[in-house]
Amino acid sequence: MKILITGGAGFIGSHVVRRFVNTYPEYKIINLDKLTYAGNLANLKDVEEKQNYEFVKGDIVDAIFIDQLFADQDFDAVIHLAAESHVDRSISSPLEFVMTNVVGTVNLLNAAKKYWTGEYLNKRFYHVSTDEVYGALGEEEMFTEETSYDPHSPYSASKASSDHFVRAYQDTYGLNAVISNCSNNYGSYHFPEKLIPLAINNIKNNKPVPIYGKGENVRDWLWVEDHARAIDLIFHKAESGTTYNIGGHNEWKNIDLIRLLCKIMDRKLGREEGASERLLTFVADRAGHDLRYAIDSSKLQKDLGWKPSLKFEEGLEKTMDWYLANEDWLNGVTSGDYQTYYTEQYSER
Ligand code: NAD
Ligand code: DAU
User: Is 82 in contact with 102 (CB distance < 8 Å)?
Assistant: First the structure.
């Protein structure tokens, strides 16, 4: 099987590529990535020499390039992760999110439709999406696969739109498509614009840790390798046209999560208890900030037997150990453009 994985140089994509390259030596894995600020080939150093792996640099927004790639390579399947993924950036540059997340997805769908005609059932288009398409929850309910879409940020609106296009190509042309909507991931190779790696980096460097609003927002955290395992299962086992929610049953208010993280960091860095917590700084809230996400993943658990493998505290420890042991990676991604981004994003808050 020859599989095109898009966005494989990013956070989740690199874990999916690693899993597929190592688990299925008989497959050929082509990783297509534009290498934006979020894409980094250092995330895949351990698999880059493998026989069944190939990297292609390219932009999913470029329809001619995507068409040619499908003409040249006889793909059996696509696992589509390439996206602009950071909510704060979508608030300052919404159009980039429309281009990559909507137009880029439609370009891939068009190429799949054109080159797979007559053999749709033997092919598979797997679209990786997010729980943010469902909007925000109150205190009680959870998102199920039947929850209506209600996106609030330009990021989630663009992902919702891409999900609709995938379903439209399934319904209109018969494309064999599956979608999964996952909650917040954490783990190694997570770009430090996102809450957990940003906090680890700032605590390590004794810098203020920005908490939006009152820190009351709730996220449902899942270890990234459990997400990659779910993608593997769904890719191989799900029926065409199915959607699965993936989540950790692991809800944390931001403030509680960051306090826990500070406590563990104090221990790991040999600081006195409470030292890291003094870095917490409440800053202006994110516009349109969704209050709570929580995923009901019982369909995935029942149909395919998936469940999270790690307790959160265990996963957090592993993650912190990885960041402390991989200073070169962290220093590499936080130099240059990251400093400009950080100043623009946080100096006005
Ligand atoms: P990321 O930002 O870390 O990585 C995105 C990757 O896509 C990067 O390697 C980037 O270079 C590449 N890319 C961006 N624009 C491109 C383009 N135009 N052409 C080709 N490549 C391009 O993102 P992530 O956190 O790994 O998320 C991956 C996918 O999973 C996204 O679709 C996201 O919506 C979804 N998702 C993320 C989370 C999460 O918690 N991070 C949760 C649920 C779903
Ligand atoms: O739910 C899945 C989504 O999770 C994915 O689709 C997105 O791609 C991914 O980025 C993530 O979105 P969030 O907006 O939830 O993640 P982020 O790490 O940006 O923020 C997590 C929470 O922490 C959120 O409530 C905002 C808050 N936050 C974030 C940052 C960066 C802060 O309080 N301070 C910060 O500096």
Answer: no
